[in-house]
Specification:
The radius of gyration is 15 Å and the shape is globular. The chain has a 10-stranded antiparallel β-sheet, with no helix packed on it. It contains no helices and 10 strands. A hairpin with a 4-residue loop joins strand 2 and strand 3. Helix content is 0%, strand content 72%. It starts with 13 loop residues before the first strand and ends with a strand. The protein is mainly beta. The protein has a domain of 99 residues: Lipocalin.
């Protein structure tokens, strides 16, 4: 499966309302959570589903398009624009991903402990629990909880 390269336009998908809750857990520190409710696009493809939305100042990634490519047991998160990255999530597996920062690019290992996907062309839920490791050291645990419904 090849990750998507293009950004969706309004004519390529169904307009949906997306609720994204991102949680970060660090040892000895209270969890940090960000929640974004926004409009986006949901598109069916031969490979699966594409869910796309624009980030906002609330997430610190204004000017970035985020796309979740859902294909069976694998989800690929691609960010392009002000922030560029790609992360591959697959339950029980670890994938190395590239993450661009203002200070330079770095390679990170993404270990997915749980992936629950109940997303259809009409909407649904997506939940991903994962850890990020830099140079074989886990830097934090994270969770995405995404709810998609027709607008």
């Amino acid at each position: 499966m090849k990750p998507i390269k293009s950004i969706l336009t309004a004519t390529e998908g169904r307009r949906v309302l997306i609720s994204v809750r991102g949680e970060q857990y660090f040892d000895g520190v209270d969890p940090d959570a960000t929640e974004l409710v926004t409009e986006g696009l949901l598109q069916e493809t031969e490979e699966g589903l594409l869910l796309s939305y624009e980030e906002s100042a609330l997430t610190g990634m204004e000017g970035t398009t985020t796309t979740f490519q859902v294909c069976g047991s694998q989800v690929i998160l691609t960010r392009s624009g002000a922030v560029n990255s790609q992360m591959i999530f697959e339950e029980g597996r670890q994938h190395t991903s590239l993450y661009e920062t203002p200070f330079g690019d770095m390679s990170v290992d993404i270990g997915t402990s749980r992936l629950r996907q109940e997303l259809t062309a009409a909407g649904g839920e997506l939940e991903i629990h994962y850890s990020i490791a830099v140079q074989n050291t886990v830097t934090g645990r994270n969770c995405f909880r995404i709810s998609v419904r027709e607008k």
